[in-house]
Design goal:
mainly alpha, 0% strand, globular, 121 residues
């Protein structure tokens, strides 16, 4: 068995798992660079998912017309999988222990810096 030589390749990116990772990473990376509202992040994620799904259909050599319909539903599946992964990771990272002293309750825990995985809603 050969070991992989690259983390992402074209073939791995055009798999379901690779497309979900790319769809979750692109909006979160953009949101760390530029302040974007959650609605825009969801639209970016949907666009990335659809582009990857239709690219997968384009690379398929079969000449069936219904592959484009299947690609649309695959794009929705990729988007929902990335949305679920992002929401799960953002909820898991937000759990903070309850305050133990009065001084801790008075502190503002949000420093204003965006966490990488933050809810798109």
């Amino acid at each position: 068995m050969d070991l992989p030589t690259t983390l992402f390749s074209t073939q791995s990116l055009l798999s379901l798992a690779g497309a979900v990772v790319a769809t979750a990473l692109v909006p979160n990376v953009l949101a760390t660079v530029v302040k974007l509202p959650p609605r825009t992040l969801r639209l970016i994620a949907l666009a990335v998912a659809m582009i990857l799904a239709f690219l997968m259909a384009y690379m398929d050599e079969s000449a069936q017309w219904f592959k484009w319909i299947v690609a649309f539903f695959n794009g929705l599946l990729i988007y929902l999988s990335a949305l679920g992964a992002n929401e799960t990771l953002s909820r898991g990272l937000e759990k903070t222990p309850p305050p133990t002293t009065f001084a801790e309750t008075a502190l503002d825990r949000d420093s204003g810096q965006r966490k990488f995985f933050r809810s798109w809603f």
